[in-house]
Amino acid sequence: xxxxxxxxxxxxxxxxxxxxxxxxxxxxxxxxxxxxxxxxxxxxxxxxxxxxxxxxxxxxxxxxxxxxxxxxxxxxxxxxxxxxxxxxxxxxxxxxxxxxxxxxxxxxxxxxxxxxxxxxxxxxxxxxxxxxxxxxxxxxxxxxxxxxxxxxxxxxxxxxxxxxxxxxxxxxxxxxxxxxxxxxxxxxxxxxxxxxxxxxxxxxxxxxxxxxxxxxxxxxxxxxxxxxxxxxxxxxxxxxxxxxxxxxxxxxxxxxxxxxxxxxxxxxxxxxxxxxxxxxxxxxxxxxxxxxxxxxxxxxxxxxxxxxxxxxxxxxxxxxxxxxxxxxxxxxxxxxxxxxxxxxxxxxxxxxxxxxxxxxxxxxxxxxxxxxxxxxxxxxxxxxxxxxxxxxxxxxxxxxxxx
Length: 403
Hints:
By secondary structure, the protein is mostly helical. It is built from 21 helices and two strands.
């Protein structure tokens, strides 16, 4: 009987898809002889079906359940370790599991306690949780080398612990060569930006450009950007803007002011990018968008329509996006002398023409009509105004013959 079951299991094995043993899948018929035979004969687990189960269960679904349970456990442990809220614990747990599925939270708890004894706060460790995946011995080596600089507290250089040993060595050499301390630069920027040193060091740890700069030059550049309304946090997020020379920074600031672009919309990459890219972005993102907003207001007021309709007209007529918005109002006023707003909206291409062009076309059309008619009886087809030169000449010739 046992032999027959083993043979049957081998036959079934050929018909189904298998994968190496990763998780022990649950079975509805645990303890049965058939399952015992399957476990002995086949050292693999089914990828599509569980043994003798009527309802098919995919491995992905089971993996999700396992991941959910693991995540819940990690969440509760992270909440105890960091003494934080549920949402913060959820974020930390997901990030730690993404970096390492088999993360050992017990060792992380030990490193957190050790860093806490050294003087690090839970809030700083929560923001820099990626350093907790580093072994404790390596953290000790990095801390010994970083503490040579005059830091006020450990929280101020915790983000620098994420750097490897070689980078920290190079950092020390650069500091000795330039006769500069990274701690002084961090405190200098935190004073100018009115931001806490741990947050400043969080951004400066990845971009160490502030070390290679002279202190006076750094102060001048920071003052220049801050005095003209650039947000301090934007500068911190993109510190490479400080590599640009003062002349380029002043030139770009003058251009941004010339185009009446508000400092709230200024970004550090505008000071770093080449001049053609800067001109294009200013034209496309700011000037054209502002012109479109002005034209939408003019169309909605003059033609008594919705803003969505005005936006649709400008989107369809690309020529309108390039014209000066101040010339649009006189064109609409001229068209309203001859057409109702509804007719203008139906023939919105009329807005592309100048006032002079409309006057000339209308005058020629009126000359072709009977002079005995009153102005109210005169009719003008808006589509005639839209004709090109060749078609309009043919139209004039035909009507002159009929006249």
